[in-house]
Write the structure tokens for this entry.
Amino acid sequence: QSQLVESGGGLVQPGGSLRLSCAASGFTLDYFAIGWFRESPGKEREEVSCISSTDDGTYYADSVKGRFTVSRDNAKNTVYLQMNSLSAEDTAVYYCGIGGYHTCSSFSRWLDYGMSFWGKGTLVTVSS
């Protein structure tokens, strides 16, 4: 069965760091650009970051730019999101997803176009 599984979420204090993982099983991620999204209580799901299939293109939302870093290890069939300098505003369920694209050029519109595949999410709580 093909699936994406996020992990690495948890409770962290403001200013702390977490690294999220998005692991694929049943298929290879090599072909796809992978997006990270988040959904906070009372808010719509929003784009966070994206990495292209060839690892030469990335995208970051303004709210995370300079604090988050996306990377991938195709040998491990996994994409990562390193999150530093976390604040309460980063509290959300984080999802990885596939829009069916090779690059992140249209990433800001993936949610509008529709997604091909979602993980079930991992909860990140930033609180003292």
